[in-house]
Amino acid sequence: MSDGPSRSIPSLHQKGTIMSSTRSPLRRSALAVGALVGSALLALTACSSSGSGSKPDAGGNNGSSASAAALDTNGYTKGVSDALAKGGSFTVWTWIPQIKDLVSAFEAKYPKVKVKVVNAGSGADEYTKLQNVISAGNGIPDLAQVEYFALPQFALKKSLADLTSYGVGAYQDKFIKSVWGAVDANGGIYGIPQDSGPMAFFYREDLFKKFGLTVPKTWDEFVADAKKLKAADPNAYMTSDGGDAGFTTSMIWQAGGHPYTIDGTKITINFNDPGTKKWVSTWNQLVEGKLVDTKTPGWSDGWFKNLNNGTYVSMISGAWWPGILESSVKDTVGKWRAAPMPQYTAGQQATAANGGSSFALPKGGGNQLLALGFTEWMNTTAQGIGIWTKGGAFPSTTAQLTDSAWLNDPISYFGGQKVNQVLASAANNVVNGWSYLPFQVYANSIYGDTVGKSYSGNSDLAPGLANWQKKSADYGKQQGFSVSTG
Predict the structure, then answer these.
(1) Dmax over Cα atoms in the chain, in whole Å?
(2) Does the model's pTM come out above 0.70?
(3) Using one digit for the tens of pLDDT, what is the confidence trace for 157-196?
(4) Rounded to 5 degrees, what are φ and ψ at 338?
(5) For 16, how many CA atoms within 13 A lie in the half-sphere containing its CB?
(6) Which domains does the chain carry?
């Protein structure tokens, strides 16, 4: 599952503190997302997330905007410390619940700075409003939360400040490759990463023992488990997947697929590539065989009921999933465990990301240095990171992901398992080179009417993907891109 419609997620370590997952609902209407692009695109250079048309270097980045600029003694980029000392006010748009605690701590540290917080909605709701105020030239926030999959769409229309000139390339080594690749594209850096969503396999240990299932190391084993489970209990499912754009693209990503290729304004959409076919071949067995639940809407009351009563024996999800369990699946404390994602080839360790956000500076904001200072403090300092990770977010900084205390923390909900070790390993094994479309927000909004129909009919996913490909390509052409299909 993707991380759903901005649900509240508690910390693994601290009940009652919540965060909001960062993958928005993927069946939203387009919400005027056409405003995000436009006829002027032919004059622009397209950006893509997590390694676009240019080949990643060994570090997983494009190699184009890494900066040798040094940070000052406070750990900030040039000019930020002076701006914070001078003071002033700025506005940030975000939906994370930890923002109140973050702002309180930041203003205590920098008493001359005042932060105004606006929750303009999450996901597509915020993006439509953001592009509208940028186009109007007023009401523009100084800082805005933008998910990784949506970042290229804003960068493409030059709606975001390129942070390269501020020297933020100096932060590159502080973040894992996959998230830095999501903000660093085609010569520009368009945000400071915050959280991440490396994927893992979560399963009910008690039910696996009850039904004699093995923790699958390969997708073939996963399918075999699903068939064995269905034979033992026709009302149980290996997992739930009602059709979700974010989940689909992440699964194709893990399979080594590259359905989106971006080269400036030239785009190729190809859901016939080998990686996509590999995933479809596996997943069709589950969807057509009714071995996964395709009927219960994700995040519905019925879906949570199925999680609580053991109808689903496992879930494939981002690193935010443990928080969902602790928040909303309270009948299964101590019964869940985490393991690496199954592989297409035994012995590999490939995974993908599902979810995560950056903080970007929209063009036209009035106090960019203060806004930059806040996002640098929030996402690169121990104090800032400590606040929002205690709220349940999964970190993206190398320091946090290698911290021995964090790695060795036994999680009671998982029966004392050191789950962070599994998730940290996943974070370091996200496949490099994935690209999102520079109109991914729109593409995701039409997923339900294309691939979603394959799910609802428990039928072959390939025709649904072909329809999604065609409609996405048609839209891209209407917006001035040169789009070819495979």
Answers:
(1) 69
(2) yes
(3) 889 999 999 999 999 999 999 999 999 977 899 999 999 9
(4) -120, 145
(5) 0
(6) 8-196+356-416 (3.40.190.10), 199-353+433-485 (3.40.190.10)
